[in-house]
Amino acid sequence: MEYVSPATAAIYGIEREALLGDIKRWAAMILPEDREAAGHHMERACQGDSAIHEFRIRRNDGSFRWIKDTDFPLFDEKGKVQRVGGIAEDVTETKMAVEHQGVLLHELQHRVRNIMAMIRSTAVRSADGATNVEDYKTSLAGRLLALARVQTLLTRQANAGGSLRDILESEIGTQAHSENQYELTGPEIMLSPKAVEVLTLAFHELSTNALKYGALSVSSGKVTVTWSRFQRREKPWLAIDWIEEGGPPRPPPTRRGFGSELIEAKIPYELRGTGKTTIEPDGARCHIELRLREAESILETDAPVPTRLYGGTIDMTGAPDLSGKTILVMEDDYYVASDTAAALRGAGAVVLGPSPTVEDAIHVLENDTPSSAVLDLNLSGGGPKFAIAHRLLERGIPFVFFTGYDPDVIPDEFAHITRLQKPIALRDVVEAVSRL
């Protein structure tokens, strides 16, 4: 190498003199997996062809950079290649931006598909509790609007949650006739995205029922919500109390409805907390407890504690018979997990879990050996996880992926594994498991 410009030396993070002389000095800085291709493009320039290529280098300070190199031949008066010139451009930031955009696209696709699966489950559950078509339309529309408000809040800023007070103001304020009908008391608490999603839906159900049957249905009624931090086993927790007063007499419910399931099952399953609703003569009462991250007002949703999922089956008449099979279900969304488990039970299988976290699934595998498994890839956020897939592969237990991610997110070692893309018909899940 005869000449190195100051700009090129700066890109490579080295003194100009260190690159002069033997071209092997330049080649040594290129990562081994890119070196052969870079040499091939240099040979093309030596043969008279211009070449543009990209490769990675490792600088002396240990940092990595992406280089876009434009090589071109310099001819003598006889038309023979005398030298090769090159222009180096640091394109690291561009590469990182493109890679980041790809990650965001994968997460967006995953999020949208999960939302569609959630909408499907919400529509089915709304139909179960409706007394007529008009009632179904009203309740489903309200729940979808609440879900839309959640997405609006969560997409204002990446990985941001929301204020507990703001969520309560939004949900109760939408239903109340005036601000005098509700009172909110408690410290400022910022919730994680998952907690915002679950609690917004819970407060929507409580507010809607208060408007239909409880304190918000009359001008003299009032809803009081208080919340506070407390310590449990030296860990910070959050307690929320919803109290209605002054409402019309209300008989206790005869069945477990959408809101009760959400509070008493979805909150424990997804947020690892507790929820309990009761109906008093003048209105509803609800008590919710959730663990908070230490020294932060962000809800922790990945504590490895046992969870319980309400049972039930779905009629799978005509679907493959899974009798005698024991199937592990790993899914962090309560509704999707509940529906999947019910479908598998309806086909005759015994369901282990469902497990909302990797830790839960590991605990199950330490005590049981399933015949097969259905695995979600993204548990409690943080991108796709393959720890359980590796364990199952090592133990020879067949499984399917049940995910909103595209195939290119899955490593090559799992390329042969069936991928079920959300949302999907429950019968298709049963069909896929039957083929394992």
Automatic annotation (TrEMBL):
Chloroplast recorded as keyword: no
Record-annotated Response regulatory domain positions: 326-436
Modification 4-aspartylphosphate, positions: D376
Superkingdom, taxonomy of origin: Bacteria
Pfam families tied to this protein: HWE_HK, PAS_3
EC number: 2.7.13.3
Family annotation (Gene3D superfamilies): 3.40.50.2300, Histidine kinase-like ATPase, C-terminal domain, PAS domain
Domain annotation PAS: ranges: 1-49
GO molecular function: ATP binding; methyltransferase activity; photoreceptor activity; protein histidine kinase activity
Gene Ontology BP annotations: methylation; phosphorelay signal transduction system
Keyword Transferase among record annotations: yes
Residue ranges occupied by any PAC domain in the UniProt entry: 51-103
SMART domains membership: HWE_HK, PAC
Listed SUPFAM superfamilies: CheY-like (SSF52172), PYP-like sensor domain (PAS domain) (SSF55785)
Catalytic activity: ATP + protein L-histidine = ADP + protein N-phospho-L-histidine
Keywords: ATP-binding, Chromophore, Flavoprotein, FMN, Kinase, Methyltransferase, Nucleotide-binding, Phosphoprotein, Photoreceptor protein, Receptor, Repeat, Sensory transduction, Transferase, Virulence
Protein name: Blue-light-activated histidine kinase
Organism in which the protein naturally occurs: Rhizobium altiplani
